[in-house]
User: Which sequence fits this backbone?
């Protein structure tokens, strides 16, 4: 599994873990396989798959491996678009070695998704809101804003995101477009 994590091939990681689950004796895989699979689903933004995995996890595995519950808490926060809570949960949890790189990648992926949503949704946004949505503050936040070429008005504390460059992005099938549109509308309403 480590080789998939190193190269960032989370789809292959998910496939590998799914295969491990299917081939497991008595249908119960090693808890690490479940943790990696749950993290891979969250990284791929396949929240419905993550929810179904959580529901089929054996109760004794859920109870004896708290990191799985913590990971699912992140999944629930993603589902509800409670981004600041995600960053707080990640910081307050001691992650086991096998999950630590996946959770770190999940924070980066989530932050990049949020920044993309912001750039596609807002012409102006308060800097405090950007901070809350990204889990960044101070110099780290300013570095991200500057690296994306966003304008920052210090007098009003408003940030003007530049429209994200979507050149080279492949067209999505209509069901994926509908899911993205739903995410965007939900993000704007919350």
Assistant:
């Amino acid at each position: 599994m480590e080789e998939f994590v190193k190269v960032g091939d989370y789809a292959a990681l998910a496939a590998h873990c799914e295969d491990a689950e299917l081939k497991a004796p008595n249908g119960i895989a090693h808890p690490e396989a479940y943790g990696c699979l749950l993290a891979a689903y969250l990284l791929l933004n396949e929240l419905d798959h993550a929810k179904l995995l959580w529901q089929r996890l054996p109760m004794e595995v859920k109870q004896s491996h708290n990191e799985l519950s913590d990971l699912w808490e992140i999944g629930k926060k993603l589902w509800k678009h409670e981004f600041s809570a995600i960053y707080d949960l990640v910081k307050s949890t001691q992650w086991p070695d096998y999950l630590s790189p996946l959770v770190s990648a999940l924070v980066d992926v989530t932050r990049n998704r949020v920044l993309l949503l912001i750039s596609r949704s807002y012409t102006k946004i308060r800097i405090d809101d950007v901070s809350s949505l990204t889990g960044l503050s101070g110099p780290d936040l300013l570095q991200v804003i500057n690296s994306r070429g966003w304008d920052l008005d210090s007098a009003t504390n408003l940030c003007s995101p530049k429209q994200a460059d979507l050149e080279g992005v492949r067209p999505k099938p209509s069901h994926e477009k509908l899911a993205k549109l739903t995410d965007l509308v939900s993000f704007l309403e919350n």
